[in-house]
Design goal:
Helix content is 33%, strand content 21%. It is α/β, with parallel strands linked by helices. The strands form 3 sheets. The protein has a 9-stranded parallel sheet. It is elongated and about 70 Å long. The model has no long low-confidence stretch (mean pLDDT 93). Bound molecules: phosphoenolpyruvate and manganese (II) ion.
Length: 323
């Protein structure tokens, strides 16, 4: 929660600001038709500061989310307007495969390359990624093919290096509640793609975004990737209702990941169409040119050859009403 301070007409704004800083409050001055106001975090006593007329508790638990920009600059792209297509392998498996897939992803018309260098895995015996070395393969391939790069920061130890090389730092579903990581990601100054925790409410998801923005991130893109619900034939349940709600009530860009939601490649195209029709700001799709041999998540990888027709179809679908 935060406090909204209304200032008297003759308040000396610079003195108010200096006094707030002295008390440890990071103040944001708001200029509005109703007069001058300051937004200050809770926990700072502000009532006796000269020039403060009245103090209101803000009704929102996430002031940074509420005033976050509706578009997020990712490399030379803007996310939050026309929907974008992000695609690539689950994991960066080797340099040649990353290069081949990046070439195919660019040729198909996608704008963003995805791929994991540090992979969260349920079993310690599964392939866990090639780490920092793979970050270099991804960056190089993205540059050669004119793509922006999104890749996951799994741990506070890696987030600095990930942020140096990625255009968009991914926080994975398993880490949505990892507050130290959210804060470190926000401090890097790079925009963050925040996946929804598999059992997270929308309110918890927004508060995770608040941690990132409060720590200094220039923007957050929310990514719905399916939640745990009743047992289903799909890996998770794609919660499009919550996506629609976020689009109606909040300004943060929202994208959909049909691969992790469905866990099945035959559902990727229909779920992309649904996301597009809803007016979301993009999709994040796992692709592979040999899904049967993928090191991870092969069952939910769209065969690379099917990406270009899907991209063309989504482009033809155009844009539904976006805010
Ligand atoms: C991923 O994008 O590769 C990933 C691990 O996704 P999630 O965090 O949604 O499971
Ligand atoms: Mn995956």
């Amino acid at each position: 929660m935060s406090q909204l301070l209304r200032l008297t007409a003759d308040a000396d704004i610079e003195r108010v600001r200096a006094e707030l800083l002295r008390r440890g409050a990071d103040a944001e001055m708001l200029e509005g038709a109703a007069g001058r106001a300051v937004l200050v975090r809770d926990g700072v006593d502000v009532r006796d500061i000269p020039g403060v007329d009245s103090v209101l508790r803000s009704a929102t638990a996430h002031p940074c989310v509420d005033r976050a920009p509706a578009t997020v600059a990712v490399g030379t792209l803007e996310i939050g307007g026309q929907p974008v297509l992000m695609a690539g392998p689950c994991a960066a498996e080797d340099e040649a495969t990353v290069e081949r897939l990046a070439a195919g992803v660019a040729q198909a018309g996608a704008q963003v390359l995805r791929g994991g260098a540090h992979k969260p895995r349920t079993s310690p015996y599964s392939f866990r990624g090639h780490g920092d070395e793979a970050l270099g393969w991804l960056r190089g391939a993205a540059d050669r093919h004119g793509l922006a790069l999104v890749t996951e920061a799994l741990d506070v130890r890696h987030v600095g290096r990930v942020a140096e090389l990625a255009d968009l730092v991914q926080i994975g579903s398993r880490n949505m509640h990892n507050q130290p990581l959210l804060i470190e990601a926000g401090r890097t100054g790079k925009p963050v793609l925040l996946k929804r925790g598999a059992a997270a409410t929308v309110a918890e998801w927004l508060l995770a975004a608040e941690h990132i923005l409060d720590a200094g991130a220039p923007g957050v893109v929310l990514c719905e990737r399916g939640i745990r619900a009743l047992p289903q034939p799909t890996r998770n349940t794609l919660d499009l209702g919550s996506v629609a709600w976020l689009l109606a009530h909040h300004s943060l860009p929202v994208i959909v990941d049909p691969s992790h939601a469905a866990g099945r490649r035959e559902l990727i195209a229909p779920l992309c169409r649904a996301a597009w029709a809803l007016g979301c700001h993009g999709v994040l799709v796992e692709v592979h040119d040999d899904p049967a041999r993928a090191a991870s998540d092969g069952a939910q990888a769209l065969p690379l050859a099917e990406l270009a027709p899907l991209a063309a179809e989504l482009k033809a679908l155009g844009q539904t009403r976006r805010r």
